[in-house]
Design brief:
Layout lengths: L2 E5 L3 E2 L5 E8 L7 E7 L6 E6 L6 E3 L7 E6 L4 E6 L8 E8 L17 E2 L3 E5 L2
Parallel strand pairs: 2-11
Antiparallel strand pairs: 1-3, 3-8, 4-5, 4-9, 5-6, 7-8, 9-10, 9-11
């Protein structure tokens, strides 16, 4: 069974940092692109960052560009989302998803239908 598990969500103060992890099992992790998404309260889920299977190529949403960094360690079957300068609007449930596609595919531009499976999400709260 293909499985993605997110972890690292927490309560953090505005301006703080957090690192989320997305760990896969039951599939060839290094053959899948990984995307990070966020669902803020009252809003639709939005794509934040995507990385190709080797980690060579990355795509970021404008809303988080320069503050968030996505990187992966295929030896650990894990993709990370390093988040800096967090603001209250960054709060929400963060999801990772796996796509069996290459660079430039629909998944790379956060098209949800192009993702094969999803994690259950991890909660991030930004508040003083």
């Amino acid at each position: 069974q293909s499985l993605l598990v997110e972890s690292g969500g927490d309560l953090v103060q505005p301006g703080g940092s957090l690192r989320l992890s997305c760990t896969g099992s039951g599939f060839a992790f290094d053959r899948f692109g990984i995307g990070w998404f966020r669902r803020a309260p009252g809003k639709e889920r939005e794509g934040l960052a995507a990385t190709t299977k080797t980690g060579l190529n990355k795509n970021y949403a404008d809303s988080i560009l320069g503050r968030f960094t996505v990187f992966r360690d295929n030896a650990k079957n894990t993709v990370y989302l390093q988040m800096e300068k967090l603001q209250p609007e960054d709060a929400g449930t963060y999801y990772c998803a796996a796509a069996d596609g290459g660079y430039g595919g629909a998944w790379y531009y956060f098209k949800e239908h192009d993702y094969a499976f999803w994690g259950q999400g991890t909660q991030v709260t930004v508040s003083s």
